[in-house]
Design goal:
543 residues; mainly alpha; Glycosyltransferase; three-stranded antiparallel sheet; binds 2-acetamido-2-deoxy-beta-D-glucopyranose; 6hp_glycosidase-like_sf
């Protein structure tokens, strides 16, 4: 705690913000759900023409094709393209992650030749063999999620696209997506055979040595349940759902809350595989915690009948986040700031004012919760968080936000005091950009909820900045320094999630044409939403 308690003025109707030192406690009254969001967040008045939207959607598609060609030329069949050294890298088990992560976006973009090439390749992967270490979380969200989602799309609303674009023979290839998902899950499932039933985070496929003395992170085993449950629902074989949900129980009800649950619903980070007990009390919505919270509400979106408990757990975490983790940057330097950030906690209840690009998905996640539960307070809070993360983009000379940032007035580095006074945050730790999606993902949700084209403009600005700094002759790359206008050095990695997430959210925010629009197949959260995105942005059909 720094300084004396000090009360701050209400920023928005219905929200009273208490600033205690540097930590702001936020209490919200129950707001009417009948009133539109524009009552609280006025519409900017920006309306984009269809022709503008079309040219933007086309530019995103062009970026996909450019990245795909680079990958095929120099990276395929390895996991990803290293565009500067013009070769492939295997950071994701070596089964060709970019293909599986890329197929869903290619389907939505209606690129039949690309999809056909991807389907053929996927049908021939041997998921029973792997020389590299398996990361169960990454393998689930990228490979299993990618295949199950592509199956949901191609056996569902995009089956017409298959027929008209690719011919009848490809139906067998579509079904191989599901078969291959079963092969993969069967190759991985022994890792759940620990004393507690919490799976091992890393292992060699053929090792089969259970190491129950290890630990796993809450995101590591709390972000499997959507993909493994969907696989059971599609195949009628309950074992995958049972395994993943059994592990999840340790997070729904914590064995040792005095350590593992420092705030109601907000958990520590690491859990022991032998007894399911937490070993630490630090955490938040950033790395290793993030998608556990994300999936609580997404499971409810997937099937409200089966996953009400998950939703209640999300509500607990959301309420604690609003109450204990919210803070405004440097209240004394920016008294009228309406920026809100979410901090991280360590040693139990100490909240530090640091954030990350990864945690910027939280605005979108609150907006999803607000839509599903009809709770205006989550929508408002979500939009405020989107503004905070937007500031990290808008005020960076490159136009892209950093991997890590801070807003603790007492810790501003001396060479950033002026920057902080102007912008309300400062660079703190890593300043690179790895083609991450979270800020754009939240813009997507903000646009869906508000229908305010301002968010489309923000997404476009982000794309133009990425295209300007990360584009290479053969694809896109991570960059070293977003605090420089040119983005610093090109770091030589085109992550597979560039295809799965960044390009998909960008395409969906601009695209008003194609099957998606004509068939009204409901990607949009809310009452008629038919899909839920896994944490890798693979759309899974709601149960
Ligand atoms: C799990 O372990 C038990 C006993 O150690 C063994 O009988 C069983 O076959 C194992 N299951 C899997 C899926 O490996
Ligand atoms: C993206 O970069 C390419 C290559 O520099 C350029 O030709 C294209 O116009 C850019 N697109 C946008 C939308 O800025």
């Amino acid at each position: 705690m720094y300084g004396l308690p000090r009360r701050s003025r209400a920023l928005l109707l219905g929200l009273i913000l208490f600033v205690v030192g540097s930590t702001m406690y936020l209490r919200s009254e129950r707001l009417s759900t009948v009133e539109p969001i524009s009552t609280y967040f006025p519409h900017s008045g920006i309306h984009l023409d269809r022709s503008v939207l079309k040219s933007r959607a086309d530019a995103i598609k062009e970026a996909y094709v450019h990245s795909w060609h680079g990958y095929i030329q120099y990276g395929f069949p390895m996991d990803e393209l290293l565009p500067m050294s013009k070769r492939g890298g295997n950071s994701m088990s070596g089964w060709g992650a970019s293909v599986i992560d890329g197929i869903g976006t290619a389907v939505l973009m209606e690129l039949p030749e690309v999809v056909e090439e991807q389907l053929k390749f996927i049908s021939q992967i041997d998921y029973t063999k792997c020389e590299h270490q398996i990361n169960l979380f990454e393998t689930t969200i990228r490979y299993l999620g990618g295949m199950v989602s592509a199956y949901d799309l191609l056996a569902g609303p995009y089956s017409k696209f298959i027929q008209s674009g690719m011919g009848e023979k490809n139906h067998a290839l579509v079904h191989s997506l599901l078969k291959q998902s079963v092969v993969l899950a069967d190759a991985l499932k022994w890792s759940f055979n620990t004393t507690s039933g919490i799976p091992m985070p890393f292992f060699m496929l053929h090792d089969r040595r259970i190491k129950s003395e290890d630990i796993n992170s809450i995101a590591g085993f709390g972000t499997l349940v959507l993909e493994w449950t969907r696989l059971s629902d599609l195949t009628g074989d309950p074992q995958y759902a049972t395994m993943s949900q059994r592990a999840q129980e340790y997070l729904l009800k914590v064995e040792n809350p005095e350590i593992g649950e420092p705030f109601p619903g907000l958990l520590g980070t690491h859990v022991r595989l032998n007894d399911g007990k937490f070993v630490d009390s630090h955490g938040g919505w950033g790395a290793m915690g993030d998608s556990y919270y994300e999936y609580l509400i997404k499971m409810y979106a997937y099937d409200p009948a089966r996953f009400k408990r998950y939703m209640r757990r999300w509500v607990e975490a959301a309420e604690s986040t609003m109450t204990y983790l919210t803070s405004v940057p440097g209240p004394s330097t920016r008294p009228r700031s309406n920026l809100i950030f979410v901090g991280e906690y360590s040693n139990g209840k100490q909240v530090s004012m640091r954030g990350s690009h990864l945690a910027c998905f939280i605005g979108g996640n609150f907006l999803l919760g607000g839509q599903l539960l009809g709770e205006m307070k989550y929508n408002i809070y979500g939009l405020q968080l989107v503004e905070g993360c937007r500031a990290t983009y808008a005020k960076s000379p490159s136009g892209i936000g950093p991997e890590r940032f801070g807003w603790d007035e007492s810790l501003v580095p001396s060479n950033q005091r002026e920057f902080f006074a102007r912008n309300g945050w400062y660079y703190s730790g890593e300043i690179d950009y790895r083609l991450r999606p979270e800020v754009i993902e939240s813009y997507y949700h903000a646009w869906v909820v508000t229908r305010d084209d301002k968010y489309r403009d923000w997404a476009w600005e982000a794309f133009v900045a990425i295209n300007r700094t990360c584009r290479t002759e053969h694809g896109f790359t991570s960059i070293s320094d977003v605090s420089r206008e040119d983005g610093g050095n090109k770091d030589d990695k085109q992550e597979s999630f560039w295809f799965a997430e960044v390009l998909k959210y960008l395409f969906l925010i601009f695209n008003e044409e194609g099957i998606q629009a004509k068939e009204n197949i409901g990607f949009v959260p809310g009452k008629n939403q038919k899909w839920v995105f896994n944490t890798e942005a693979h759309p899974i059909r709601r149960y």
